[in-house]
Specification:
mainly alpha; MetI-like fold; 13 helices; 83% helix; 0% strand
Length: 288
């Protein structure tokens, strides 16, 4: 009476293992090809960031923050945060982390925005995909490392794969919400003037949904950055690996510096992308 009956147990783990084995047996070649292509992309992005002179990066971030936030001292603060990361000796690792985050975000947006558009245009698709997004956001992030390891082995590729799964839902949701919140009167007016479905999407719905999409990009970027420590467990180099090594060796100072560098990167990215989203919202409000 106090133990759950074995007759009612569901062997979900066995089913999942069987599916994974089938995928590896029948689609292993495809996963290898995707892994090689993704690795080449990652290496190009990483080399690009590592080849950039640090004064150019600091000046560019300061200028971008000044233009988006509208205050010169905001640009100085953001540039100063980058200088602090460099002063810790983590400039190269920060660029590696930024390369992983950038690659994951670009792929997440390339998949997520079209998926959000499809959700917005079909109630059936939305009701089907929404539970999947709920599962992706509530599943412990460590779980994503298991299929990533099985499909792609150790290294940067599985780290990006796991990051994409974890970071993609916000941009899908907010793209869907942004398009659905476009006033029906505006859509009806565009249709009355003879706009096709594609013209309606690209000339009316997406421009009006742009502030919501920008918030989705911001959230996706921040979630990708939050995965850097977990991704380091499967071979991704960068600031996350420094945190992991500091934990293993109980080096408090080293871990504090690496963790603070991640926080500074998050602040810089969040402030700039959030300011871009706010500017889009202000422009839209002024235009209306």
């Amino acid at each position: 009476m106090y133990e759950f009956p074995e007759a009612l147990s569901v062997p979900l783990s066995d089913w999942v293992d069987a599916v994974m084995s089938w995928l590896l047996t029948n689609w292993g070649t495809l996963f290898d090809a995707v892994g090689k292509a993704l690795l080449q992309m990652l290496l190009y992005v990483e080399r690009f960031f590592l080849l950039l002179p640090w004064p150019l990066v600091v000046a560019g971030v300061g200028l971008a923050a000044w233009r988006t936030l509208g205050k010169w001292w905001s640009g100085a603060v953001m540039a100063g945060l980058l200088m602090v990361i460099g002063s810790f000796g983590y400039w190269k690792l920060a660029m590696m982390t930024l390369a992983i985050v950038t690659s994951a975000v670009v792929i997440s947006l390339a998949i997520g925005i079209p998926m959000g558009i499809v959700m917005a245009r079909s109630d059936f698709v939305e009701s089907t995909i929404r539970p999947v997004l709920d599962a992706m956001q509530t599943m412990p992030s460590f779980v994503y490392l298991i299929p990533a390891l099985m499909f792609f082995g150790l290294g940067k590729v599985p780290a990006v794969f796991a990051t994409i799964i974890y970071a993609m839902p916000p941009v899908i949701r907010l793209t869907n919400v942004g398009i659905r919140q476009v006033p029906s009167s505006v859509v009806e007016a565009a249709e009355a003037f003879g706009s096709s479905s594609w013209q309606l999407l690209f000339n009316v719905q997406l421009p009006l949904a742009r502030p919501s999409i920008m918030v989705g990009i911001n959230q996706t970027t921040m979630m990708a950055l939050s995965m850097v420590v977990i991704a380091s467990m499967i071979g991704a180099r960068g600031l996350g690996l420094e945190v992991l090594l500091a934990i293993n060796r109980i080096e408090v100072g080293r871990g504090f510096e690496a963790g603070l560098s991640i926080v500074f990167l998050a602040i810089i990215i969040d402030r700039i992308t959030h300011a871009l989203a706010a500017r889009q919202q202000k422009t839209l409000g002024g235009g209306s």
